[in-house]
Amino acid sequence: MNTIYFDHNILDRMLKGAEPAVVNFIEKHNLEPIWSDENIQEIIKSQGKEYEFCELLVRLKAQRIFEEYVEFKSTGHILLEVKNPHERLAELKELKCEEASDGKEFLEKFVGGRADLTFLDALVNPLLEQKVALEKMLSDFRKGNSYLSTDQIQELEGSLEKIPDLIEQLTLQANELDERANSSSLINQIEEFSGVGPVQLNNIKPPKVVEKIWGLVGHCFGAPKTTLEQWFGLEPLPIQGPPPVPIVLSGKVNAIYHQLNMLGYWRDSKLNKSSRFNASWSDMVHAGMASFSTVFLCNDKAMRLKTKAAYEYLEIDVLVVGVVEERQEAGGPESYFDT
After folding, report:
1. What pTM, to 2 d.p., does this model score?
2. Measured distance CA(160)–CA(6) in Å, rounded
3. How far, in Å, CA of 188 to CA of 112, rounded?
4. Per-residue pLDDT tens for 260-288?
């Protein structure tokens, strides 16, 4: 099955008149529209247009794409289901929170946001919360209120044993980051340290965008001891240990996309403002979810270029296109689309 995934700006464009052209494109290429919870999260923020956006997805007969979780753990599988977007919107509103995003507070702090938060808070507090949750699970098991297997109990105990050492390491790192952040923006410090920023990076052309960027900055971040795959978040660093499950494809796209954005490759603006950081975060999540599609329709040039760079490195065969202004003389609706 060939599928098409939409960034929110495309859905917005469709409500403003581009729907016939997009539908024509979908039908001509025999594509099945799909949406993710991130689409719904952005629809929730649309201030009064929730019904219109959900009805658009209904008209498109779009299916939901999602990551499978069993016992609160990702299986690494991506699934499709027929789901009414109105129902999913109500479910997510009921949760009254965005889906869990590991490290989001730290990353927002790193780009200059969350002045109310220290790096110590952002790095260590989530680990302390995890410790409390694990201890409760273990306590429930010992009281007979849980049906965990022996292997699961051993895994819990092993995780708890590692937390004190990890807290100690992260505390040292957090204190150093807090001290650095007091002097100037960490993003500016990275540019000064590497001597490379948006001016140089935005002139890099395909192919091998990620490799070319690493060739410019890798020596500043520990290469060759630290590898490209480690620095871009595709493999664990020595402090981290192996992830509990293999990183799914969308997670790898997110990792590369974020690092490119941070370094300055077609970086989003004003990331120190929460609204802009959250918009940038949504773009990253969309790029990850779209990696399971055949076509990704997106109208943000900077987003397309970061996405294409990540897809190229990971050898993901997805066509990334945008909607341009209608050109009547070009001969019909197909002239809407451009790479």
Report:
1. 0.86
2. 41
3. 10
4. 999 999 999 999 999 999 999 999 999 99
